[in-house]
Amino acid sequence: MPPPKSPLDDLRREIDHIDDTIHDLLMRRAAVVERVGVVKGQIEAAEGQVSGNPQTPIYLRPAREAVILRRLMARHAGSFPAMAVTRMWREMITAFTRLQGPFAVAVYAPEDRRGFWDVARDHFGSVVPMTAVNSPAAAIRAVSEGTATVGVVPYPAEDDADPWWRFLVSSDARTPRVVARLPFAGRGNARGEDRDALAIALVPHEPTGDDRTLLGIELGHDLSRGRLKDHLETSGLAPTYFCTWHARDPSGPSIHLVEVADFVDHTDPRLAAFAGRLGEIPVRINIVGGYAVPLHFSHDARKV
Ligand SMILES: O=C(O)C(=O)C[C@]1(C(=O)O)C=C[C@@H](O)C=C1
Predict the structure, then answer these.
(1) Among the CATH numbers 3.30.365.10, 3.40.50.2300, 3.30.470.20, 3.30.70.260, which is that of 211-292?
(2) Nearest-CA neighbor of 251 among 284, 220, 218, 286?
(3) Ligand 1: which of 43, 61, 94, 105 to mutate, judged by most atoms within 8 Å of the beta carbon?
(4) ipTM for the complex?
(5) Which residue from 62, 82, 117, 292 has the least number of CB within 10 angstroms?
(6) CATH code for the part of the protein at 61-201
């Protein structure tokens, strides 16, 4: 006699069928991502030929990743926790990116401060090669030299006397840019530092529809922070965060890092308006990068 049918059998068969469908779709997505990688490689090779400066392609597109997650969160419904969906997609997206080309992460996580490690792992997944480095400068170096695709460094602190971000205030195309703010998709059970982290990479600053931009502003003459803020505000670039670094040599430069609640690139007329307002004061403005505004989860993490 066959064993009596358990009331679970049909439900489990349904789950097996759903798992097969999810798995099939993952394998299908992988094939499409590989085709995207080929096209990106062709586009970058053509651009390298035009500029006479071919570079190893970097496939990461943090802006697109942010748009994907925001779109999924906007359609999410039901009892499955929203934050669990984003965790799965974060693990998947880096695994997919690695189908296109090499990918490694250098995280500022000295032995006595491991907090950013969890935050980086949550964002880039548990399979990607990840190395701890002892200073933000080492993370920047790893990205510039190509030993890491992404560096993870602390969100700038106003009172940092030797801030890492000043190394990113440069117009050199080989200077890494800020490309994401972490955590992007909720903190979960990650240990953290007292502040967020920023991801840096050799990837262009691209809009997502809800962005912050970091401007590095070098002035040829002294100007009070108050006056500088006024000029920024009247040019439509009201700062949401502001740090200043003074060179030790008093005749040396002061550089300001200004965060603006919008997407700004070099062609933005507000930058020209701001430079115009400064009149005789020489100014150099660099786009240090920017990031998609992270997702906000409600307390029970079910819904964004
Ligand atoms: O849209 C792209 O550019 C892709 O390469 C695809 C994809 C993805 O898996 O969806 C992978 C890597 C990028 O960082 C962004 C998105």
Answers:
(1) 3.30.70.260
(2) 220
(3) 61
(4) 0.99
(5) 117
(6) 3.40.190.10
